[in-house]
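Two folds, back to back.
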Amino acid sequence: MLTIHRVRAVEGAAAAGGDAAADAVVVDGARIAAIGPYEELYAAYGDRARVREWPGAVLTPGRHEPDGTSLLESAYHPDPREADSLGTEPLTGAALAALDMSETRWGASARRGLQRLLSTGTTSLTGAFTRPAVRTAVSRSGLRAHPVALAPGAPADFAVFAADGTCLVTALGGRLVYRRRG
């Protein structure tokens, strides 16, 4: 399915033709089909594409997290059902050491940690993941090991940020894997 993402600006990519400001990206399945001015892209693709409008927002290649290991293997991301006893923020150090951490619990924590990363616009991360459950969670997440450029033919991995810097959307392979509520 074709989707046109319309924003205030596209950063980290050159518009087709080079002289016009890019304010739209066309996604065809898992790949970027085109980047450029919305009016031109709508004229070329609009009759067969859905349009997602992100007023005032900026579309970027997304964040790269170079130290995924410390975020996912050196911290426990509490389950919301544990909020009364453990709080909602990641636990490290002595608080982490006091927990009974099985591989299953590490995997669940890693999945919640990955959701936190996606909510900040992260589209790639690296780390020497030693825990099998964490490695599995990372490999299934869709996050890439290296940042991907915004260019026609490239994987449709990007983030859309509001004017205040908060992440509205994170897309991996053309799929919206995070969307801010409200």
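---
second:
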Amino acid sequence: MNDTTARDRWRAVAAATGPADRAAAEAGVLLAYRSAGLAAPRRILWADSPLAAVTLLPDLTDRGRSVRDEVRTRPWAAERRRVHDVLGPAGWADHWQRTGAALWDPTRALADRIRAGVTQALTDPDAVSADPEATASATGTAVRLLLLDAVLGQHDAAWLAAFDGHGDRLAGPAAVAAHAGWWWPYEDVAVLCERPVELHRDEAGRLDRGDGPALAFPDGFALHAWRGMQVTAGFLAGLVDLTPERIRDEENAELRRVMLEHYGYDRYLAASGARHQHRDETGVLWRIELPDDEDVVMVEVVNSTPEPDGSHRTYWLRVPPTTRTAREGVAWTFGLRPEAYAPLVQT
């Protein structure tokens, strides 16, 4: 398998949703234990989410010690050394750039968000939890220690893409990752998670959805986000009935920006009495002054090329709050200084 094929395959694995292939994943667990020289776990259990797994683990008093080091960390390190020795330092760096590098940031960010969501759900009394009764007895330290025992399955895609086709030390963990979500390997018990049922991201790979959870698991454990920013389900529900007054009254500047994006800057300008600051041949500069936040400054420009019906479309360009003229704002969108912006033809 070439590097591009491996990268694309593991990119799809990282984003996979829907029911796990439990038989294939369990076979991967047994292979991982066997490859590490370990006896097979006496039991393999399933949980519907990482939250459900972390809630279940304290009750498994017969699970034995964690064997994550044997089934994941040591073979990982050995395989990396082997591939590095075969390819050499420059070859390894080039190989990583063509395989795992493109997957690293989005998968790490998603794994971090899941960890944070699990910790919050089990330690914050106000958080929505799939098992509210577990909240009272959980501590942040205990939850974080259990999360350290996890093998990230599909969210280990970056490393698995780099190792794909270069050896079989990681065939077991790779099989689990290809068919299931996170998993916890212990001496006598392995706990595997279902994959998410929903995953919504923006063009930059950030969690993003305005009308529901951006990431959701079968048991209801979910994360809500807008352009990567964590929000609550209640906040998103309130976006449907936004008013300029509600936006102005929001004390959290980051949430206010989310509201503005959802409501529409042009719509807000029209409804909120924005101040017309400057006009020239490039467009009209508008300014909205917000309490405890930077001003929202927009340039209104009209496309000089008519639409098929003869009309001319209006566009709104958000520009830095320091902008003082429409020309300066339009030039900024092209990465130019105002005096350098002199288009031969406006489109």
